[in-house]
């Protein structure tokens, strides 16, 4: 208890630790906020720098587009002039220079256009208005815009490299007076320092690099003081893969954000690299100001947080110290003191409620210990009573087990005697039953033989009667067969008469066919068809006569067979009549034999029935003996089991009493 009291003694440094923890938390949060704010400012500045570079690149391409549309418009206007068309179609170079020279000088002074050329359909220089003394050279090998304009008769605009350098060009086809293609006219604007200087603003400079015979060279720059970056290895990479690159460059003039972007010609092929440099001085100053503001914000927040932390630490430490004091008192054994701050709704209030619950639990445990001491005394008294009851039970159970064992032994002996008697009775009953069953079997055999004899005699009588009836039926059938045979003989005679008539008709038909053949021969060619028919009729008559002859032969054979059948039927009828007389005599004799056999069978059946009754009764006696023997064996087994169970019960009682006494 004293150790617990020391452990839970109120600590005066808790408020300081809470204040320090809260102050550190506020400082960390303020620092994180400042860092995040700095990151955000840095991100905003980076995006602003990238946006500046992107806008500068867009300004370059927009200016190129404006100049491209301008030079194309000028070229289309000049190419539509009839004097230009006529001079080009007629190959009149002086006339062409007279028309275009003043126009070129005016445009050069007002817009900065630096090139104006006219070409033949095969892309040879017809006239350079800006250099009249140079003409006639073949441009088809490298001026692909002019080749396409003269080939496809279309107007094109955009960047393309030429003899004078990289320029924004507009080229149009020029038809002759007869509207046939006469050549092309081109107006150009060279990309020079002045062009890029017009794009420079707010510390953003432009440079343009393009490949030449001696390597990558700078074509133009917006400021004279910019260092040449032709040796920068990033420039060839942009030319090769066309990927924009943004880097940071530091030099004598300060740090700059640098954009390297590909520049394409009119056909989309990359021919140059645009370098845009933006001075970071303005953004660096803004970044420093923003960081300074973030640091000041952090300092103010940390100071305010420290003050708040001190106040919060003191406010939070007071109830905690009260709780620790109450816990120390409870550890010392004071369970009756009240717990404060239980009505608060924060974590301290919940902790106070938990301490109050703990006090209640400790009080209940104290009361419970007193109750358990009283219950222990009651259990000791009850155990003494149980011990006395166990000793009395042990003595009574031992006497009962002895008596049960003696009764079981006597019952087992009696069951053995009953088993022997039942066994002898069963043996004698089996012998008598076997004799009776043998007698019954022999009686049954004799009875079955008598019944079979009687049945055989009855069957013979029935068959003899049936034979007599069938003989009478056969006699009637034979009579009907005789009548049918006589009728058949008459029918055969009539068939012979019919065949005679058919034979006469066939002879007459043959004569008619012969006469028809003679008449057809007299008719000549007109009777040929009729002669053929007559021949077929004659052949048919001959076949009929032959068939009739065969039928007569068969009829004579049938008449002979019919007479033989009549004689046979008469003989069969005589035999059937004699058989019927014999069958009736035998039937009368068998009736007398059947009556005698039936009387013998009845007497044998009565004897067999009585023998069967005796066999059934002996079987019942045998079953009763078997059941008595089984019952005796069951009683003997039950006696042994009861004796064994009595021993088991004795051991269980002894074990139980031994366990209880421990």
Automatic annotation (TrEMBL):
Keyword annotations: Membrane, Transducer, Transmembrane, Transmembrane helix
InterPro entries hit by this protein: dCache_3 (IPR029150), HAMP_dom (IPR003660), MCPsignal_dom (IPR004089), Sensor-like_sf (IPR029151)
Short name of one Pfam family: dCache_3
Boundaries of every Methyl-accepting transducer domain copy: 400-643
The keyword Metal-binding is annotated on this UniProt entry: no
Parts of the chain that traverse the membrane: 290-312
Domain HAMP: residue ranges: 314-367
One GO biological process term: signal transduction
Cellular-component GO terms for this entry: membrane
Recorded superkingdom: Bacteria
Keyword Transport: no
Family: Belongs to the methyl-accepting chemotaxis (MCP) protein family.
PANTHER family tied to this protein: LYSOZYME-LIKE PROTEIN-RELATED, METHYL-ACCEPTING CHEMOTAXIS PROTEIN MCPB
Protein's recorded name: Methyl-accepting chemotaxis protein
């Amino acid at each position: 208890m004293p150790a617990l009291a020391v452990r839970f003694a109120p600590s005066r440094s808790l408020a300081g630790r809470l204040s320090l923890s809260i102050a550190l938390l506020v400082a960390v949060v303020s620092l994180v906020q400042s860092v995040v704010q700095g990151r955000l400012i840095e991100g905003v500045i980076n995006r602003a720098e990238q946006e500046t570079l992107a806008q500068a690149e867009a300004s370059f391409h927009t200016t190129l587009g404006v100049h491209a549309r301008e030079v194309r418009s000028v070229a289309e206007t000049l190419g539509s002039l009839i004097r230009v068309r006529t001079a080009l179609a007629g190959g009149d170079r002086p006339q062409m220079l007279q028309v275009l020279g003043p126009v070129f000088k005016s445009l050069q002074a007002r817009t900065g256009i630096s090139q104006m050329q006219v070409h033949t359909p095969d892309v040879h220089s017809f006239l350079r208005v800006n250099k009249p003394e140079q003409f006639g050279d073949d441009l088809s090998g490298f001026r692909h815009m002019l080749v396409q304009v003269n080939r496809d008769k279309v107007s094109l605009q955009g960047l393309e490299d030429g003899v004078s350098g990289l320029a924004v060009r507009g080229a149009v086809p020029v038809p002759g007076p007869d509207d046939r293609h006469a050549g092309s006219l081109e107006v150009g604007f060279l990309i020079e320092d002045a062009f890029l200087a017009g794009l420079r603003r707010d510390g953003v400079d432009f440079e343009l690099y393009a490949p030449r015979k001696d390597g990558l060279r700078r074509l133009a720059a917006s400021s004279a003081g910019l260092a040449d970056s032709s040796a920068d290895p990033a420039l060839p990479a942009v030319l090769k893969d066309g990927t924009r690159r943004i880097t940071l460059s530091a030099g004598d003039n300060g740090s700059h954000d640098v954009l390297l972007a590909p520049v394409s010609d009119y056909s989309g092929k990359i021919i140059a690299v645009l370098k845009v440099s933006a001075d970071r001085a303005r953004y660096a100053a803004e970044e420093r100001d923003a960081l300074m503001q973030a640091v000041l914000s952090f300092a103010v927040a940390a100071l305010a947080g420290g003050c708040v932390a001190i106040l919060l630490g003191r406010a939070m430490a007071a109830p905690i110290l009260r709780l620790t004091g109450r816990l120390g008192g409870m550890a010392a054994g004071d369970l009756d003191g009240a717990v404060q701050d239980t009505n608060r709704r924060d974590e301290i209030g919940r902790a106070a409620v938990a301490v109050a619950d703990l006090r209640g639990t400790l009080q209940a445990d104290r009361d419970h210990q007193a109750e358990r001491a009283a219950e222990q005394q009651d259990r000791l008294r009850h155990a003494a009573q149980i011990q006395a009851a166990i000793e009395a039970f042990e003595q009574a159970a031992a006497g009962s087990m002895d008596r049960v064992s003696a009764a079981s032994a006597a019952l087992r002996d009696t069951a053995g005697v009953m088993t022997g008697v039942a066994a002898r009775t069963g043996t004698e009953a089996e012998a008598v039953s076997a004799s009776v069953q043998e007698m019954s079997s022999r009686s049954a055999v004799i009875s079955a033989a008598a019944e079979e004899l009687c049945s055989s005699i009855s069957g013979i009588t029935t068959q003899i009667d049936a034979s007599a009836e069938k003989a009478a039926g056969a006699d009637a059938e034979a009579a009907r067969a005789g009548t049918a045979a006589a009728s058949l003989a008459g029918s055969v005679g009539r068939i012979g008469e019919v065949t005679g008539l058919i034979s006469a008709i066939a002879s007459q038909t043959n004569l008619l066919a012969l006469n028809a053949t003679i008449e057809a021969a007299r008719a000549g060619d007109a009777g040929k068809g009729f002669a053929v028919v007559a021949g077929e009729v004659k052949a048919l008559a001959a076949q009929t006569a032959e068939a009739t002859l065969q039928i007569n032969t068969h009829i004579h054979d049938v008449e002979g067979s019919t007479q033989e059948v009549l004689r046979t039927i008469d003989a069969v009828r005589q035999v059937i009549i004699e058989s019927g007389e014999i069958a009736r005599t035998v039937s009368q004799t068998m009736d007398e034999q059947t009556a005698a056999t039936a009387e013998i069978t009845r007497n044998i059946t009565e004897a067999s029935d009585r023998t069967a009754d005796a066999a059934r009764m002996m079987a019942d006696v045998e079953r009763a003996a078997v059941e008595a023997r089984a019952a005796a064996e069951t009683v003997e087994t039950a006696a042994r089991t009861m004796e064994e169970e009595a021993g088991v019960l004795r051991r269980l009682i002894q074990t139980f009493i031994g366990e209880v006494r421990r």
